[in-house]
Design brief:
By secondary structure, the chain is an alpha/beta fold. The protein has a domain at 18-160: Alpha-Beta Barrel (TIM Barrel). Helix content is 39%, strand content 15%. The protein has helices at 31-44, 58-68, 88-101, 120-132, 146-153, 174-182, 202-211, 215-225, 237-242, 253-260, 272-278, and strands spanning 9-11, 17-19, 22-24, 48-50, 76-81, 107-112, 136-142, 162-166, 186-190, 229-230. The protein has an eight-stranded parallel beta sheet with strand order 3-4-5-6-7-8-9-10. Strands 1-2 form a two-stranded antiparallel sheet. The radius of gyration is 18 Å and the shape is globular. The chain starts with 8 loop residues before the first strand and ends with a helix. The structure holds NADP nicotinamide-adenine-dinucleotide phosphate. NADP nicotinamide-adenine-dinucleotide phosphate binds at residues 24-26, 50, 113, 142-143, 164, 190-196, 199, 216, 231-236, 239, 242-243, 269. The record marks 80 as: Lowers pKa of active site Tyr. Residues 28-263 form the NADP-dependent oxidoreductase domain. Pfam families: Aldo_ket_red.
Length: 282
């Protein structure tokens, strides 16, 4: 069922709820920008804020949230464990660092940022431990393919409730989306706007014109109607607002399938299988 407003939540397989629409913070790197950006996003109704150790902005995000005096239970905080600190002990230790930087004693969602062959099962064992210890409410993965999830299932005590992957009209991963739905895993879209690469698409612009919506709004709507949780990032107040105005129109079946057909297998980020093999981004 497609969400009807930005405050709607989705029930995860572990029983917890996650906002159905979120905000990305990659490349927001100074305190002033973080303060103004997050304040705008909060006022517009965004509740899920996505960061990662790798972004080196957990500390400024933590400081912003502290300054805004947002009650912790109203926030949904996601962070991710980087490749170089994977493994059982290292993961436990690195999450302590994230919690400290974010000025909180728990994360709502912790993700393995990329699959890494060498530490594949040990990192997940640490995630299960962190959840049992109450340091994180929900555990998930990022950039996992169906094959990675099948492999994880051979030893996991519990399975990820979220898989955050690159997803936009030029990299639609419909097969992975089907797999995740069948396994009760929520698919989060990172680079939901293709980091702007899709914003010049003439076909989406034409569909947008019909609804009096921008290309960005049509793309986000297409993701929502597919049951995907998008986490667009912007540092421009007018775009932060624009990206939330996606709950007042509907794409029909023809429009949905027209956008589905724009797939070019075009990535803005790394190929997960190579990161899995080499243990690092390239
Ligand atoms: N798990 C992973 O491996 C992974 C990888 C990458 C990203 N992520 C997460 O996903 C989030 C989103 O992905 P992303 O930041 O890579 O890409 P994105 O959200 O697809 O695109 C962000 C870019 O689009 C621009 N933009 C946003 N809204 C716009 C609008 N309405 N009109 C025109 N331009 C617009 C932004 O510019 P301005 O900021 O200048 O407005 C920025 O340059 C990240 O911030 C991060 O939290 C996760």
């Amino acid at each position: 069922m497609t969400l009807t407003n930005i405050a709607d939540t989705i029930k995860l397989a572990d029983g917890n709820k996650i906002p159905g629409f979120g905000f990305g913070t990659y490349l927001i790197s100074d305190q002033e920008s973080m303060d103004t950006t997050i304040k705008t996003a909060w006022d517009e109704g965004y509740r899920l804020f996505d960061t990662a150790m790798l972004y080196r902005n957990e500390d400024i995000l933590g400081e912003t949230l502290h300054r805004l005096e947002i009650p912790r239970q109203e926030l949904y905080l996601t962070s991710k464990v980087a490749e170089e600190v994977q493994g059982y002990d290292q993961t436990l230790k690195s999450v302590e660092g994230s919690l400290k930087r974010l000025q909180t004693d728990y994360l709502d969602l912790l993700l393995i940022h990329w699959p890494v062959r060498e530490h594949f099962f040990d990192t997940w064992r640490a995630f299960e431990q962190l959840k049992a210890d109450g340091k994180v409410k929900s555990i998930g993965v990022s950039n996992y393919t169906a094959a990675h999830l099948d492999l994880l299932a051979t030893k996991a005590k519990e399975m990820p409730v979220v898989d955050q992957v690159e997803y936009h009209p030029y990299l639609n991963q419909l097969a992975l989306l089907d797999y995740n739905k069948q396994h009760n895993i929520v698919t989060e879209a990172w680079s939901p706007l293709g980091r702007r690469a899709v914003l010049g698409d003439p076909m989406i612009a034409k569909i947008g014109k019909h609804h009096d919506k921008s290309v960005a709004q049509v793309i986000l709507r297409w993701e929502l109607q597919h049951g995907i949780l998008p986490i667009p990032k912007s540092q421009h107040p007018e775009r932060i607002v624009e990206n939330t105005k996606v709950f007042d129109f509907t794409l029909d079946e023809d429009e949905m399938s027209t956008i589905d057909l724009l797939n070019k297998y075009q990535r803005t980020g790394n190929e997960p299988e190579i990161v899995y093999e080499t243990g690092k981004q390239y």
